[in-house]
Design brief:
The chain is of the alpha/beta class. The protein contains eleven helices and eight strands.
Length: 220
């Protein structure tokens, strides 16, 4: 499962990219607005840092508007992915863009049937929103599992990009469910590497090493 960062902050992206485990980036209008930068320039800068897929979302709500924006966004970098919402207009735009050879991430997916529609429209990614389903007392990770199962049975090539992940357990469950990718905020990505036993173990090792060096020096 590829690990994506859900952000438009260049400092966060650079930091996680240095770990050598970053598979891609997802953005949305809300994340972009927070950075107070030109959208096109920001996406281009992100694509220079990350070699994997970078999803950039259209803001139009009609098919023609999405097509115009999507075709423009697709020219910004070789690894950019056009993101369209899972609406009738978004499906129509996805179908047309995919026929043009443009990769599309269909976002805001909340049901298996919606995911099937996205796959039939030719989506490269479909993004089920785990955390938002949990917010209304539904099991978001179970949805990811069901979509993965249906796609396997039906032979769909669309990849499942689990989104709206709120914590490490979401990441674990989506990996177990067979998601192809998982995108998460910076703070969640940082939590993946953190464990108190790792910290205490390292501290103990360093203390033992320091004591051993002191003993050797004393004997010398």
């Amino acid at each position: 499962m590829l690990l994506f960062l859900d952000t438009a902050n260049l400092d966060e992206i650079r930091e996680i990219a240095e770990w050598g485990v970053l598979g891609g980036i997802t953005t949305n209008p809300t994340l972009v607005v927070k950075e107070h930068q030109d959208f096109k320039r920001l996406v281009k800068d992100i694509c220079k840092i990350v070699s994997g897929p970078v999803s950039a979302e259209v803001t139009a709500t009609d098919t023609e508007g999405m097509l115009k924006e999507g075709r423009d966004i697709a020219t910004w970098a070789d690894n950019v992915i056009v993101k369209c919402p899972l609406t009738p207009a978004g499906l129509a735009a996805t179908s047309a863009l995919s026929r043009d050879g443009i990769k599309v991430d269909v976002t805001l997916c909340f049901s298996v049937n919606q995911a099937i529609l996205a796959a039939r429209a030719g989506a490269y990614f479909v993004s089920p929103f785990v955390g938002r389903l949990d917010d209304i007392n539904e099991d978001g990770c179970a949805l990811v599992e069901h979509i993965v199962e249906v796609f396997h049975i039906q032979g769909y090539e669309t990849q499942v990009l689990a989104a709206s992940l709120r914590g490490p357990q979401h990441v674990t469950r989506c990996a177990t469910a067979g998601a192809h990718c998982a995108t998460m905020p910076y703070k969640v990505f940082k939590m993946l590497v953190s464990h108190p036993l790792t910290d205490s173990g390292l501290e103990r090792f360093l203390e033992d090493w320091k004591s051993a060096k002191s003993g050797v020096a004393a004997k010398g």
